[in-house]
Design a protein that fits this description.
Blueprint: E1 3-8, E2 28-31, E3 45-48, H1 52-61, E4 66-70, H2 73-82, H3 90-109, E5 115-120, E6 122-124, E7 130-132, H4 138-142, E8 151-158, E9 161-165, E10 185-187, H5 190-201
Parallel strand pairs: 1-5, 1-8, 2-3, 2-4, 4-5
Antiparallel strand pairs: 6-7, 8-9, 9-10
Helix pairs in contact: 2-3
């Protein structure tokens, strides 16, 4: 049973930059929008694109213990735009089902020491709550995607300092298990987050390939 974590934040607040301390051979990087990384370097095992079948193949093939799905909300947005001329609600059902299936497959089908991080933009709902950005109301009304995991972190920027928040502020969906993180804000470093999660649940740390 794999672990899913959501890393939420507005564009430019440090989601992709938080990958900077992972070694090149340490993660499977699924680069949905095929964007250059916001730092020097690259990841040896990368899939560039938004094809769910190819993403599933990459996940099933890898032996990496860390999977990062970067700009994951564009899996839904890109599918919507490709099907924007379709009339009716079936496309929204398909979009929701495809994304839900991906998250659920990681929870159910990958080894228990694999952590998949979904990096996603945020949106604000009608009540003023900040949440993961989706397409249409099916995922929002029928399935709270943040409810599919125990870990939701959010990027924050103040006075040029980039951090993650670890607990709910009353207006968002951020959460983490009791005692996993010692402070409300932590350094914007997904490698350090991964180490903390593994230590908390007693998971083996990824091994550097020789």
């Amino acid at each position: 049973m794999g672990i899913v974590a959501f890393i939420l934040g507005q564009s430019g607040t440090g989601k992709s930059a938080s990958l900077r301390n992972f070694k090149s051979d340490e993660i499977l990087h699924i680069n949905v929008m095929k964007k250059p990384l916001p730092f020097k370097g690259s990841f040896a095992e990368t899939y560039n694109g938004d094809d769910y079948v190819e993403i599933a193949k990459a996940i099933n093939k890898t032996n990496k213990k860390v999977i990062v799905i970067d700009d994951a909300q564009y899996l839904m947005a890109n599918e919507f735009m490709r099907r924007s001329s379709e009339i009716g609600f079936q496309k929204f059902t398909d979009i929701a089902n495809n994304f839900w299936t991906l998250v659920n497959s990681i929870t159910n089908d990958v080894p228990g020491d694999v952590i998949a991080y979904f990096l996603m933009h945020t949106d604000t709902d009608d009540t003023g709550r900040e949440k993961a950005k989706t397409i249409g109301k099916l995922l929002d009304e029928k399935i709270c995607i943040e409810g599919m995991t125990s870990i939701v972190l959010k990027t924050a920027v103040k006075d040029g300092v980039y951090t993650f928040t670890t607990q709910n502020n009353g207006r968002d969906t951020v959460k983490s298990p009791l005692g996993m993180f010692s402070t409300f804000e932590i350094e914007n470093d997904l490698k350090a987050v991964d180490n903390t999660i593994r230590a908390y649940w007693g998971l083996e740390a990824p091994k550097e390939e020789k």
